[in-house]
TrEMBL record:
It comes from the Bacteria. This is DNA-binding response regulator. Transmembrane segments: none annotated. It holds the Pfam family Response_reg. GO terms for molecular function: DNA binding. Residues 4-122 form the Response regulatory domain. It comes from Streptomyces virginiae.
């Protein structure tokens, strides 16, 4: 079945461009468009998309609040949110990730990256681009706790190896890169990541990365 996509952006020209790219792919179907967060909520309820391509800065309701309502408790459907941001990495992206977005993508990303990102998010994974994630978290380190706060008790449920894996996820490494770093198989890494998400009650790698920074386990800028 085709992946159902809802386009949310207050610029009609951008929506048209995204639609042209996505409709060229047989496995993708653009089921609707919205020009602001309120329209997005209505469209999600009416159209039940698999993935919402969400802009951040929009009138009436921004993408952060719309994301929170789409992915939060009592949501109407299984829609995943892929946030669109500018090259300068909008400061609200951190809040969007906390609100429940499954990842983010630069607006000027190549068409093939856009298509692949939608496939990844629709499959239940997180679109966590390593280099962009590190830049984002480092740039907005001031939005995160100082590290003086008490470390959450939930970290104590992780094994030593799972803590290692969580730190590497927070640095933006892929499963293959983590496997090479720890000298284990990629399958083993996937198992560890799954255990981390389950034990900490997290949805995906994006939430895991944010959790690692917010808990003080990883310091912005640390290697």
């Amino acid at each position: 079945m085709a992946i159902r996509v809802l386009l949310v952006d207050d610029q009609p020209l951008l929506r048209t461009g995204f639609r042209m790219i996505l409709e060229a792919e047989e496995e993708l179907a653009v089921v609707g468009e919205a020009g602001d967060g309120l329209q997005a909520l209505d469209q999600v309820r009416a159209l039940q998309p698999d993935v919402v391509l969400m802009d951040i800065r929009m009138p009436r309701m921004d993408g952060v609040e719309a994301t929170r309502q789409i992915t939060g408790p009592g949501r109407d459907g299984p829609a995943k949110v892929l946030v669109l941001t500018t090259f300068d990495l909008d400061e609200y992206v951190v809040e969007a990730l906390r609100a429940g977005a499954s990842g983010f993508l630069l607006k000027d990303a190549p068409a093939n990256e856009l298509v692949q990102a939608i496939r990844v998010v629709a499959a239940g994974e997180a679109m966590l681009a390593p280099s962009i994630t590190r830049r984002l978290l480092d740039k907005y380190a001031g939005h995160l706790p100082s590290g003086e706060e008490r470390v959450p008790d939930t970290l104590g449920t992780l094994t030593e190896r799972e803590v290692e894996v969580l730190k590497l996820v927070a640095r933006g490494l892929s499963n293959a890169e983590i496997a090479a770093d720890l000298f284990v198989s990629e399958t083993t890494v996937k198992t560890h990541v799954g255990h981390v998400l389950t034990k900490l009650g997290l949805r995906d790698r994006v939430q895991a990365a944010v959790y690692a920074y917010e808990s003080g386990l990883v310091r912005p800028g640390a290697q």
